[in-house]
Amino acid sequence: MEQAAKSDSGKGRHAVILCHPDSQSFNRSIADAYCQAVRENGQEVVLRDLYDLEFDPILRSWERPTVPNFTVSPDVARELSILRTCDILVLIYPIWFGTPPAMMKGYVERVLGSGVDPKSVVSRTPTSFLAGRRLLSFTTSATSAPWLNEQGEWLALRYLFDHYLTHAFGMQADEHVHFASITSGLQPRWAEQHLYDVSQHARRACGIVTADRHRAAALRHEQGSTAA
Q1: What is the CATH number of the domain that holds 198?
Q2: Residue 94 — pLDDT band, cuts 50, 70, 90?
Q3: Global pTM value
């Protein structure tokens, strides 16, 4: 499993969270294509394969931020130490029964939501380490895009998951790329096209991260000049 890189390199850094039980899945290919494109663009990436990590999605009583003995579990602390140095969070997962897999939802509850008080979510007070970061999601489904739309699943996922996460954690923006009709019969030419699209999105994300870092550096310089 890939380890977290140093955070003081000055490069853009991407955290890729993969959730699929099959190590040979198309979701894994998406993760690999994204990571490769990021590295080719001179930025850093850390891949967290939740099944490979055997991540425990169960939120324990003491991990709730509202209890007096709130405690961060060791596995959560490890993930937080990795994510805190990242500029963009990339989620990769299949849509199962209209929602992300339980393990991905557990990662959100235990890691991304660690220490986040519900009152801060309502008041839009940025208390999460994700404040100001960007969210990019890649999902797959065996069903077609029109079918997802007919069932209302796509709209529900965008509002109840993507938009809610950016609101809850004070993130800058979210983007969601979906690949429909991903089955064992997927033709190679379509698979190649989809992975090319992933690489293009990764390159675009690198450009956005670089621009964000330049703006942040300019703001720090301006504030320092004003203070002096």
Answers
A1: 3.40.50.360
A2: very high
A3: 0.91
